[in-house]
Amino acid sequence: MIVSDAPATAVAAFTTNRVKAAPVVLGQERLRGGRVQAVLVNSGNANAYTGADGLAVAREMTALAAARLGIADARLVVPSSTGRIGVQVPRAKLRRGVRAAVAQLSPDGFHDALDGIMTTDAFPKFGVRQAPARRTAGHGRRAGEGAGMIAPHMATLLVYILTDAHVSRPALRRMLMDALPRSFNAIVVDGDMSTNDTVLLLANGAAGNRLLTPRSRQFGAFAAVIAELMRAVARMVVTDGEGATRVIDVVVRGARTPADAARVADAIARSPLCKTAFYGGDPYAGRVVCAAGYSGARFDPARLDVHLDDVQIVRRGVEVVRAVERRANRVAAKPAFTLTLDLHAGRARAERMVSDLTVDYVRFNSDYRT
Amino acid sequence: MIVSDAPATAVAAFTTNRVKAAPVVLGQERLRGGRVQAVLVNSGNANAYTGADGLAVAREMTALAAARLGIADARLVVPSSTGRIGVQVPRAKLRRGVRAAVAQLSPDGFHDALDGIMTTDAFPKFGVRQAPARRTAGHGRRAGEGAGMIAPHMATLLVYILTDAHVSRPALRRMLMDALPRSFNAIVVDGDMSTNDTVLLLANGAAGNRLLTPRSRQFGAFAAVIAELMRAVARMVVTDGEGATRVIDVVVRGARTPADAARVADAIARSPLCKTAFYGGDPYAGRVVCAAGYSGARFDPARLDVHLDDVQIVRRGVEVVRAVERRANRVAAKPAFTLTLDLHAGRARAERMVSDLTVDYVRFNSDYRT
Predict the structure, then answer these.
(1) Residues of A (212-271) whose Cβ lies below 8 Å from B
(2) Are the CB atoms for B191 and B270 separated by under 8 Å?
(3) ipTM of the complex
(4) Which domain-ending residue is among A239, A273, A289?
(5) Is the pLDDT of residue B12 over 90?
(6) What is the mean pLDDT of chain B?
């Protein structure tokens, strides 16, 4: 449970999956008010595909939390769930959990809350940054659960970004929306998208700074800190991808349009052939070129350049990996490297942070039943 | 090498990958003429991503074949290649191969040709059918190479459908285009698409039947035989998918539009989570519902029905797998079963034949370097 002394200004991004978990449906409704004072998170049951009953439980639990916390309006409480889907939430158990969480609330409980939302994560994901704001320094704090596309039944990307800065809602919204394409929307473990994904950004103004708006002089610097924080935590999520042994930064540049850049980056990020080549440490240019080719993006294959870090493996459409084989192999064997494609078709760009597809990924997801 | 005594009426479908192999570029050019007398296939080198040199080699080899075969116009010869991509074709070796193939031509050489185009295939894929045509019976014969999305470097779906019936080009085109969506365009091993995929349909008229046109009384029956043959061979390709242990027929019905039906079917067919669940023999409805949800298709999740063969595991949006667990487990453990989703949003339908994602798939594709 995350509780603010006063209602915080809030913005959020939720899963675009048509099948939305009950807490997402309720969260979307409540975010319309623009204020959130408490977030109630449970793991073990995603409350997804649970129909009207699931929604009723979510409402009931936030009402109980509000009552126990002395928050007058239950609409200031937002729920999040992660865990099994298609199973009704055990009401009594959750009720006990809400009471216990309220009883254990503490100003120093940040890491306990972080532990509480972990499911199949190998490590907790969080970061703390200082960001500049006029008069006094607000700071951003953030707890992220690296489930999401990683532990896909237990399975959700639940991200909470907290700041005590005083920030207007339009400013918060712009920070979040600007940072998403290069952070949580830029990560691909297996390309599946959960029913529960939630990114919530709360600013409660306790720092007492002058209101930060999109026109404030510090807006850019503050937004940059939030963006960097989101990106850092998103990278932790990929690093902790199921069975992952490498993190590859896929950079596509020189595309005609941002959509074309994204098509190429996503095709590579999702291609089982590229992802198994990453796993094998194989600088196999052909698979990458092939995926770019079927991505739907418009470009001239005869102008394509491909680099592994600073080693060029395709030059103007001709594979040259054999000439640089030793250096290319060395890059491909690293736990992290950058794969850059230049389409020479325009100026648009896209980036993805991608994990490899491994034997352990298949083992885990074929053995694991929720 | 496949040679007809006389030029055959020809239609073809090629890969839509933007990166097209030289033989595909040349094949597309030559198919404009509508007549093909010989097909020249090599394996070991895909002649893809080989630039102007690759195209020159492809032209040269078809010219050599034409000269050796006594075909006056080299434009009646179509090349196909499968194998490594991004490597220049060894000219001298290919030249020797063309001469050897011509020398070994024989009316009984069907299975030798089939062996010749196999790469990583575990078994040859072919079928023979009789189809009705007026006056005399033409018959369809077909050799398929199950590489394609299966052995993706060595790697191409090369399909040749041969009939001695006398068929008009519009009739051939309609047969091919009508049959593709439920055969070679409906199979998903890993979702990657080769630079060389080719499906060629040749009718040389040696059977002497009256010309079959789209208006002929036997058109429907003849087309049905071709369609059934294509579907049967496409299924062999999935069965021989790398590391595959199961073939799943994914059927989506009740979609608003054919595009929506295809979106849902493709999302499931490509989802690593669904495909590892298939491997694990796990009737996990949640992953399937989740993939349908993020597919982009419009439907109401609360109306969704899901069946494994005849066992209903989701009813009107509620997972009921626990009530039928033993029966559902039994179906999911079979080497082949049908997964049916009814979206109850319209009347459109799509089907995919899908292999599972296995530990052996990852092993093979991470160890294997071309």
Answers:
(1) 270-271
(2) yes
(3) 0.81
(4) A239
(5) yes
(6) 88
